[in-house]
Amino acid sequence: MTKVLIDTDVLLDFFLDRSHFSDDAAKLLELCKKGSILGFVTPLIIGNMYYLLRRNSGHEKVIEHLKLLLTFIDVIEIGKDSIIMALNSEFTDFEDAMQNYSAEFSKKINVIVTRNSKDYRKSNLSIMSPEIFLKGSMQM
Predict the structure, then answer these.
(1) What is d(CA 105, CA 44) in angstroms, rounded to the nearest whole number?
(2) Fewest Cβ atoms nearer than 10 Å: which of 27, 45, 112, 115?
(3) 36-71 per-position pLDDT tens digit
(4) SS3 76
(5) How many domains does the chain have?
């Protein structure tokens, strides 16, 4: 089964209903809900989501959304080794480096789904936009 790390930008597309992007994000999350794919996030993604969504919504509403998300999305850890690798990597974005190495070390993730593929150029994992991922999953 395909196991994907869903990056913050994709989740924000869904929760903020960003035009041109929210439909693909919703389809991706629906595949996770159905169990067709296994979706993962990191604690950092959850923290970033809370911080960014809190700007537009109240605490209670954001917490409610995150609790719902975690009913069908799992969490991988960000350990010390992931952080050290990120610190020593050639990634230009430290947060994305931590996400990447957490995904790599988890041995659970096949693909990182993000609209920010340029920051993941140094990854050893498959990096796909939601649109490309969905096109590929429809062919499976």
Answers:
(1) 16
(2) 27
(3) 999 999 999 999 999 999 988 899 999 999 999 999
(4) coil
(5) 1
